[in-house]
Amino acid sequence: MSRSTSLSTAIAHHTASAEAVDHGEPSGCPSDEGGTRSRQDRGMPAPERAAVAEYVRERRELFGPEFVPGRLRPEAEARALLDAKAGRMSKDDAAALGAACNRHQRGSVQMRNRFSPAFFGGWLNVVTADLDLFNRRVEELWQGSEEDALALLDQVCKTPSTFPGAGRVLPTMLLYLRDPERFPVWITATATGLAVLDGGRVIGQQSALPGYREFAERVATLRAEHGLAAQEVDAVLARAQQHFAKQDPPSPPRSAASGATTSGAPGPEAAMEISEAVAPEDLDEWIELLSDPRKRQMVFYGPPGTGKTWVARRLADHLAGHSSRVTTVQFHPAYSYEDFVEGLRPEVGRGATAGQFSYVVRPGVFRQACDAARADRDHTHVVLVDEMNRADLAAAFGELLVLLEYRDELSVRLPYSQDDFSVPSNLVLLATMNTADRSLALVDFALRRRFHTVEVRPDRGVLEHHVAGQPADARALVLDLFDLVQDAVGRDAPGAPGHSFWMAPDTSAAGLARVWRYQLRPYLQEHWFERPEQLVALEERVERLLGEQS
């Protein structure tokens, strides 16, 4: 399947969005009592109060005057829907509830990613899979007594199967809708952000109801200190760790016995970044496509500078939940099967065999990743191949072509080790491909049909967001130069330079002249190797445009 994605609703969200994300919760976290206390329980040094106040001011300035009103309106819609249908919702009603929970406003722009991927798409499919159970739990949380609702939250935290897929985000969202002044939304990103701002511990789901009470008390204190409205809390907390980057991020919960992470869900930063970088509907569709057991491969292709690797890396982190489960490799013309799967490597003996020369079988990058995934079936592992089409793909992949399609069903005997080898079902293969180097149509069809393909194009909307805070003249110059080059090359041309060429720190006429001279012109000189007159004509127009603004 091939899909084109607009990065104006993708990379632009990285700067435009400020929302918390919670895509599942740990289901087997260790108890807070006993054993060694993790860094999550020890807390972190808090920033100065003045620094926090300045950060809050920046958040309010980003969202503008509609920060609170733009959240109050959809919250009122959610309450009205719950009052009318709690306990007897259809899946469409549940989707409408989720949409209301996710909708908010930044300036004049309507957005729908306040808590996504929660309350959306794949998450919603899981939580409503047993619609009768969903309705019973929602009714208990919305219409039951406060004590009963809190008791259910406690039970869900301790035994997630009580409300499969809901985590703590849905119970605390409904509590928040019941009384925003007393019940904040408790998710990984808000818990982490609170710890950054007040220096306390990161309160994990394993803390259950006592942890939520502590979280709510600390949020109330922070609100009182900085005059925060209830509707501002999640947006302020969710970005705190990224803003105060000098604070070390807390490690994910680990099993005391094995040291392995206890959840396959994305960590807070990975989930936050991919949700802010990719439109929720695109993210949800990609995840759904990659859930096909026979096609867990996806390639992002497009011209240079469109953000293919940026998006693929964040999708990999999101799927794997932790960077330790992501293996990245860059293909090049000399990259071979021996590097990727397995091959013979020379080895010089030591000790009694010192000076003797022999060849030994060494596993390649992909085989090592498969072995790691096979030994860790509870988590998704990802291999990311950057610039995939720079290598001889048929030679590098070898028998992987059939193994990728028949995961865990078919094995082959490897040529060097003679070991039986298969690709585990919990391994995802992502790749990027530069269409300026080689057209997708030239890639071996047997390989291409095994990948979902996502086209990433130059996107003016990304630049519009990037320069939104600059003076009108500066904004116009960047966008005019972008339009000038895109029109000359052809907006649909495989080699049209991507928007990141224009996202330079200095967007003055002098700064853009340097971008043209040292980046765009050399690139277009190669692109128009057989048509130099087109570069000459464009250069005259570029110099005229920049000269008028210098």
Written account of the structure:
The chain has 550 residues and is of the alpha/beta class. The protein folds into three domains: 231 residues, no CATH class; 165 residues, Rossmann fold, CATH 3.40.50; 90 residues, no CATH class. Helices cover 47% and strands 11% of the residues. The protein is built from 25 helices and twelve strands. The strands form four sheets. It has a six-stranded parallel β-sheet with strand order 1-12-4-11-8-5. A two-stranded antiparallel sheet has the order 2-3. Strand 6 and strand 7 form a beta hairpin. The longest helix is centred in the middle third of the chain and has 19 residues. The protein starts with a strand and ends with a helix. About 12% of the residues have low confidence.
Q: Gist?
A:
By secondary structure, the protein is of the alpha/beta class. Helices cover about 45% and strands about 10% of the residues. The protein folds into three domains: about 15-245, no CATH class; about 290-455, P-loop containing nucleotide triphosphate hydrolases (Rossmann fold, 3-Layer(aba) Sandwich), CATH 3.40.50.300; about 460-550, no CATH class.
